[in-house]
Amino acid sequence: MTSSPEPGTDTGSEPVDVTASRTVRWRWLRSYPVRRVLQGLITLFVVATFNFWLFRMLPGDPARLIARESRLSPEAFEQLRESFGLNEPAWSQYLTYLTKIVRFDTGISFKARMPVTDLLKPALSNTLILTGAALVLIFVFGLAFGIVAGWRRGTRTDTSLTLTALTLWSLPTFWVGLMLVLLFSISLGLLPVAGIRSVAAIYRTPFDELRDVLEHLVLPAATIAIVSVGSIALIMRNSLAEVADEDYMLAARARGLRPRTILWRYGVRNAFLPTFTLMALTLGLLMAGTIQTEVVFSWPGLGLLMYEAVQDRDLPLLEAAFFVIAVIVVIATTIADLFYSRLDPRIRSS
Amino acid sequence: MSDTEGILDRQISRRQFMAYSGKFGVAAMLASPMVAAACGGETASGVMRFGHLNIFDTPNPVVTVSTPDMHWLVYDRLMEFDNNLSPQLSLATSRDLSNGGATVTYKIRSGVEFHDGEPLTSADIKYSFELYRDTKKGLFGGFFEPLETVEAPDDETVVLHFSGPPALDPSVGAPIIPAHIWQGMSPEDIDIFGNDEMIGSGAFKLNEYTPDTRLVLDRNSDWWGWSSNDGPKTGTLEQIIKVQLANEETIANSLRNDEIDVTGTLSSPDIWAGLQGEPNVVVEEYPGLVLDHFGINVYEDPDNPGQPHPNSGGNPLLLDPVIREAMSWAMDRQRLVDLVLGGRGEKGTVVLPPGLGDAFLEIPEGEQANGNPAKAREILDAAGYVDRDGDGVRESPDGEKLSFRLFASTVIDRLPLYAELIKPMLEDVGMEIQGVFGEDDPTLIQRVFVDADWDMYTWVWQTPPDATFMLSVQSCDQFGNLSDTYYCDAEYEALFKAQQTEGNPAQRLDMVKQAQQIFYDSFAYCVMAYPTKLQAYRDDNLVGWPFVNNGITTNWSTETFLIVSEA
Fold this sequence. Notes:
Chain A is mainly α. In chain A, 74% of the residues lie in helices and 0% in strands.
């Protein structure tokens, strides 16, 4: 389709295909990455909205939650409502809340009377340290077990590794944590029980502090890894077992390639796709699922902060913490999807 | 068997793989501590490491409602509680009463400075007390209600005018805050003031605070108390670090592992008992200021005595004291103490705990309505509450079943346990308990204190070391606030108010005991038990731990922090 300038209009240039230009200009909106990012933003909006209304459906007067002391006069309660903007209509509070999110203003904690951001920042970094360490353990051991079991499917090795993976997967997190504390902290005295640093440690060098943090990191990271490694191992095992029967594997063997080459170049590479998706999901699940581990080890992360916030009904803190987790999950899954679409172009075309 | 089997065998055998995997795992697990052992961790000396479930809610002393021990270390007070929980002079050097005890004149120490170097004068005290009185916020605001005016005639004199002689002078608890920092803030500003610098004039000053994680206080070497003429504090602690741990198991394990020096209150007798015999660990049991009770909704319409209040959601049958008395007889309190508290407590009777000493009314064993189901059945039968349809549940003469809802706070583990044990005791005498409904504190507070929509519930009160607070809970003025039964009795009310301004200690004690007897006879509360306070500490790092009434570290005295020293 073409178009021409209006009669009598001198553009002073060659005729332009306006429609084609528009199409080109907006085509990027239909591209997979942009669509995926927009989906993520919509998800975050929905999560933010749920966060706001869900917590306000809980029984109890928010002003009473802030006061946590019943001896306040009605005037004092009213003043608390004003201080925290709770005297406004709900829709007005909702709009203020959305506006604040856009400005990265998460409000004032009902309990600590401090900006929620000040509470979230250290907790988030501590949780990222914990989940990062756990992820490394999960993927190293999960992939190793999965590859061995999948490649040796039907053997005693496969049976024992699969059984181990299923057993670990079904263990309760808090129980594993307690057992590790009993063994490594109480019985053997090798590792600390709780926290991220020793309570009254003196650090002469940055290495001292790093060592202390690592020492505190071992048990909580191992706890998460032990209960999560099974899922990665099983997915990897099943994927590898499936691709082992593919024609291209047979062809590779027929070409006389070395077994190691067949395993890594043809087997693991093709079996890795579903595992990769699970890895991204695992990151999100870990962020939200560290609560039990952080509570057992008093690890001062996001999970422990949320645990305390639920007990205290600290609504601004809860809303912000859930939103931060949603942001991390959305970012992780978006990156995974984009990466996956690179690995498997069928995703983009669909 | 797969046709691919054996491929790995050519690279590495199964046994080798398992061995390598195991070694790698163990190495990863143990690498850090090995390195640590090689390096040898260093711990500061002269530090008290205090493990607790909560540091505090906020550094802001005006709005805080949590345990004030840390605030009291940072902020001076005119008076303080000593180890026996008796009020003693602190920042004040003298206290003179006039006007029948309604006017209190304090002289304060000279040359005292806040942590930022600004002088502390009577103007700061006047500002602080007027702020507490006017805003009525937080833990201390409510105690300033009888305060009418404050004068500061010179820099070292403060005169407090009360509406009558105060039974508990609020000067004992209220932190003195620096006017030069707080003045100019509106009440709204104060509500959201994080106070992250915590400038006070007390024995310790803030070094670091990470909410819900860690509070570090450094010794204030310039504090007047370290060199006071009237008995200097002898402690040598350079630092107090209070860490928040998520549960009591972790606290106990941290003490075992020498990661902390002292625990907060351990509410679980099992965890506390588990620490007995541990090397360098001392376990102690102290008289408590706590009562665990079973509260009954007795919200009556004042215009129609005997009828439920229109705002009450409770079962009207509970307005009959016979049913409430039968409940009290049906409860075997010794069994509750044994099973719930592991024997670490006393059977409950009156509304004040025995930790309050002389103010506690001792009900003779033979006069206690306790642990006698036959007596419960007898008085129910006599009042016409019998099981007419043979379903095991009694009915009122009007045919209403004695069927009730029992709620329990799930925040403290022992409260649902009490409820679960009480349920069969009440069912045994012909009452139906529809279920034990566990609710978290905010929900239960709304239900009981605001909506009045419950029949019975289990709850715990922790009292200051004075009778007034706990007696005030049953005051008619506290409907919608503190009252958790909606009890209102004219005779009790008169005694409660009179004791607040009674200057004669003996007469006041008499009034306090009469009020306890009246409330006991109403059976609006069935006090289940008075738990003792359980704590533990290590004796290898710090020495000089005192025996403090109500615990080595208490909610009401900071003495331990000021006299403990490094070993």
